[in-house]
Amino acid sequence: xxxxxxxxxxxxxxxxxxxxxxxxxxxxxxxxxxxxxxxxxxxxxxxxxxxxxxxxxxxxxxxxxxxxxxxxxxxxxxxxxxxxxxxxxxxxxxxxxxxxxxxxxxxxxxxxxxxxxxxxxxxxxxxxxxxxxxxxxxxxxxxxxxxxxxxxxxxxxxxxxxxxxxxxxxxxxxxxxxxxxxxxxxxxxxxxxxxxxxxxxxxxxxxxxxxxxxxxxxxxxxxxxxxxxxxxxxxxxxxxxxxxxxxxxxxxxxxxxxxxxxxxxxxxxxxxxxxxxxxxxxxxxxxxxxxxxxxxxxxxxxxxxxxxxxxxxx
Length: 314
What we know:
Elements: H1 3-25, H2 34-59, H3 62-91, H4 95-126, H5 130-147, H6 159-167, E1 180-183, E2 186-189, H7 191-215, H8 221-233, H9 235-242, H10 252-268, H11 277-298
Antiparallel strand pairs: 1-2
């Protein structure tokens, strides 16, 4: 099948799924309960894995590359869940508006990831030494992830948000699901838009880590982008499912750091050691399983919340 046909099929499918999500299933503003979130997580994971099966059928071993990239991106997305919880609490985003905010956040993330992926693959194909820079960046990020404190940063200190507030005034109150409103003949941003700005800039920072991590597995633009996109598409539901269980994943950051370190070493040693994609996939799965199982065992005495996290703060 020609490459452009695969791209057309993928773009049409993703566009259709996003349209159904926004205009049909979540047309009305309402809180997302954990049961609904679990259903959507299952749907998005099934779609992502089914697409991987199609890659296996049409491209052979590249299906393993897709699956490895999908697992890396999906696991690193766990960090976004922590950030979303902090942002929603800081801005007091009502529960019924959180899904709409994450929808546009995810859509922007897909666009930014496409830019990063195109730039990353172009750099790697033109300048071989860039692979060592990416490898060193991943190792440094893994070190920072392990040594960083547990206290989250202050979203109000986000430099892009501070710049935006200087250009566009921000209202004190939400106005439904509006990102902007007009008062006294002047355009004002709402706190929902301020939260969106921080969501997008946070994802750009995450992309600096996650895109090079996937490029350590494959540099095929189609495989890298599609695995990224399917993982990100399920990020909203993953948040609503896991935000109330964040404390149960006490040791997950060590697993994510190990993933980044593995990807970094794979890049740095790429001219010396060539790991089969199935070995890389096995290492990724093992790291994730160990970190999740250890976390759940260590926190098994903690209760599971009955309601969705982060109710409206007014």
